[in-house]
Structures are given as C-alpha cells and as structure tokens.
Design brief:
Elements (H helix, E strand, L loop, with lengths): L1 E4 H11 L4 E4 L6 H10 L3 E4 L3 H15 L3 E5 L3 H15 L4 E7 L18 H6 L4 E4 L6 H13 L6 E6 H5 L1 E4 L14 H12 L4 E5 L1 H5 L3 H11 L3 E3 L14 E3 L8 H6 L2 E5 L18 E6 L13 E4 L2 H11 L7 H36 L5 E4 L3 H7 L11 E2 L9 H12 L3 E6 H4 L5 H7 L4 E7 L4 H10 L14 H7 L4 E4 L2 H14 L3 E6 L23
Parallel strand pairs: 2-3, 2-4, 4-5, 5-7, 6-7, 9-10, 9-12, 10-11, 12-13, 13-14, 15-16, 15-17, 17-18, 18-20, 19-20
Antiparallel strand pairs: 1-8
Helix pairs in contact: 1-2, 1-6, 3-4, 3-15, 8-12, 10-12, 13-14, 13-20
Length: 551
Amino acid sequence: MLEMTGGEAVYRALRALGVEHVFGIVSVHNIPIYDAIHRLGGITPIAVRHEQGALHAADGYARATGRLGVAVASTGPGTTNAMTGLYEAQFASSRVLLITGQVESLSYGKGRGFLHEAEAQLPMLRTVTRRAESVRRTEDIAETIVAVARDICTGRPAPGAVEIPIDLQYARAPVDVPHVEAWPRIAPDRAALARAAEVLRSARRILVWAGGGVLAAGAESVLQQLAEALGAPVVTSPNGRGAIPEDHPLALGPLSAHPALQELFETADAVLAVGTRFQAGPTRNWTLRFGGQLVHVDADPAVVGRVYQPDAAVVGDARLALASLLSDLEGHRSDPDYASRAATLRDAAREQIRREIGPDYAAIMDAIRELAPRDTLLVRDATVPAYLWGNRLLPVLTPRTSIYPTSAAIGPALPLAIGASIGTGRPAVIIQGDGGFMLNLGELATAAQYRVPVVVCLFNDGGYGVLRTIEARTFEGRQFGVDLATPDFVRLAEAMGVPAERVDSATGFRAALERAIVAGGPALIDIDMSRLVPMGGLGSPPPRRTPDIAN
C-alpha cells in the first residue's frame, strides 16, 4: 500500500486498467482527479464541451479500440448531462466507465441544498449501467474502480459508474491498487459446443449471423476462418458490421431485413448466430423466420432464447466458441450452390438499394468509400442518408470501423467519432443530418482544439427529414416541429477553427471530401440536399418551409 490522495487513487486505478485517455469537463467536484492526471502523466484528458459528448466520446473510443472508455464528470448537473451517453452505451453493449464526484460525505444524504447536491444520483446511474457504486472511504477508491471495470468488461460488455465524494478525493490514505490481468473470458460448455457442432455438421446449407458480440470478443478473425472453412455466407447485424470485410465473397452485409434475402433464411438448414440479441431492426420487428435449425452463441445467457428458441445454445465467449467449432467442423462444407445463391441475392439487394437512393447519393457513397482509406472510421448518425444507405450499403472493410447510435438517438455521431479517432489515431468520416448535428454542435470546438481528423458530411435538409416524411404520411400532410431555422454551418465551423465548404452536387462533394482528407484535420462539408436528386422512401420528404436564418 502507498499513501496517496483520493484523486491520485483514481489515477493509479486508471493506469492499472491501461487507460490512456479520459473525456470530460473539470468541475469543483472532480478537480483533484484532474490534478492527479495532469501532474502524474500518462493519461491524456480531452476537454469536451458537454458531458453527454464526453460519454459518447468514451463510447466511440471503446467501440473503435476494444478497450475501456472513460469519462470524468461532476456530480449533479454534470452526471445528469451524461445520462444519454450512458443510455446509448448500454444499448450498444459498450465498455464505458463514468467516474463522477459527489458532495462532501458529511453532507451526502442530508438534503440541505449543497452545491450540485444529487441525493438520488446512484439509483439514477443504476438505471443505465450494469453496475454503479458509491465510495465511502478513500482507501476503497482504487479497488472499487477496478472492480466495476472488471464487471463491465467481462462477458457481454456494459457501462458502469463510480461516484466519489469530493472530500475523499482530497483526503490522503493508504491505498492498495489492484493488479489488473486481462479480463477473463467465459469458457463455453464442452457438451453445448458438441451439440452445436452436431447441428451444423448435419446441415448442408449453413448461414452465419454475426452480431456485435463477435467484435466485442475480438473474434472477427476466427469467424472469417470458420466461414471460409465451411463455405458459408455471413450476414451481420448493424453492430456486427466489420466482423467480415464487406468486399469478401461470403459477406452479405447488414441486409437480413431486406426482402431479397428472405429466401436464404427460409432455405438454410442451419443458422449459426454469434454475439447477437436479434434486435428489432435486423429481424423486421421479430417477424423474420428461420426455416432450419438455430445455433445461438452468446456470452450473455439472458439473451439466448429471448427472441428465437435455439436448437443448440452455447453460452460463452465468441472467440473461444468459434475456435472450438472451427476445430470440431474440420472437413465439413456447406453447399456451394447455397453460397452462390446468397451472393446473387446480395447483389440484387444492393442494386435495388442503389436504384432507390438515386444517382447523386450513390455517387456520394462511392466517393466516401473510394477516397477514404480502408481503415477509416465510418460514423453515422440517425439521419436519412444513414438509414437508407450508410447503414446498409456503404462498405465496411475493417473491424471496429463501423459506428452508429444503436439506440437510434439523433446527435451522437460527432462525439462518437472524436473518441474513436483519438483512440485509434485514424481519420473518421461522419454522416450526419443538420437537425442531429445541432445537439452536439459544441464538440466541433473539441475537434478543432485537438486537431482530430474528423470530416463531418452534413446532409442539410433544414430539419428532421425522417420525421417530416412520417408526419406527411401519417397526419394527412400536417407538419409540426420538423422544419428548423438553420445557421450558416460553413461560417459557424470556420468560427470554431474548422475548415468548411458548402456543396450542392455529387461532383462538388467528391472534390470537397478529397480536399478534407488530404488536409488531415477536422473539416465540415455542408451538403444542400434540396439540390440533389431525391432519395426514395424516407428520402423524399416534402420541401422545407422555414428559410435559413443566416443566408
């Protein structure tokens, strides 16, 4: 044990966990933590502009690196601001740890109106985390942080939180900093693996479904080896994108809900689903049906059988389970005609989507994929272009480069991209709408301050395009709350130190994106959607009625 302050105990615990960056805002209720970080070195603090952005950035960092993402916030308003980011991290099964302050121990629970008092902060945090703890002694700070981190990083990932009263952060005490080994993997049961292998060995037409759990376990390599050994096509959930490169012959992409691929599920003798909870979108609100047997592998026993009852269930780490199946199924091959048919149906689905989005958006998508390096982070927000082509058709070629708000929240894309880019050192291309962009606009200053290489492709239709179309179709054409007065985003970005330009054609976009990528720093491209050939479906909203306020 070494004597140290509580702030230093937080720092020592984070270093033991291998943390290299933290995201947050300095406050009177966390300043000893930040002092220790600045004074002792080895951890880089990233000063964001809003605590929601801090949690989203930590989330993007965790998803892109596979490591623990950490945010440091203040008690009360700082932590309530952080709740949306924790909610998204929980929805996405992301390894995110929030460390926050609390009022002095002697005032905690007294309800006397202390500065930033938050009497029910801990139960609030427990609504969106796997585990949240409040420290009562300086001696326990490091041990508590490591214990919560171990919990949220084991099995299916989840966010967690630790609150520390400010007097304990200043106090000195002997502290034992636990030694941290690699997180234990949940070993699958051998009998369950044997049953899964039996089902798959009896199948001639095998379809693999790869979810986000494949990436969380670092199992993408062994998944691809198994798919190639079997000759089995692979469909991914949106979270599972990148588990196999989408230019691989066996990759079907995230198209499970597309009508063109339904034949594959109906004719498969067996579906091997790994690391997925079969969310609403990929299953068409759980109307998707499997014609053959289902093998479900997941680290979380609670999700197995929740939606689809498996014929063989394996609870355990995806990498360990897939490695075992690779060995057990040696020599077995799926019907090559089935894989060939899968490729034909995939290509038909992709071509149909290209026709639906029209020539301009197809050209914009092609420009992103052609100009951005293969390992560029592709970060999408909940916006029309993301729904219609960014989440379905824009090829993802490298693991952990596909990031989007799993909860379908609008606004997280920019801070998600900032965290992911800082964690990996790689550039990010962001697909975002003008409405969602305004929710975390302040983080553009964060990108400028740290010269983060993110390119915001801002698809500007002057409002909430998805909701505009839904209202028009649902309420006899009545529109409300969807047309927004928009600022001049180019001048706004430039005022924050971010180069920006406005484009109104696919050709202009290609040239602007090329300039932004070559420049290597943050950039913004304001895309006037009214000048492009409209997309079909949700991409064809009524014209906006509110004029721009800055033109």
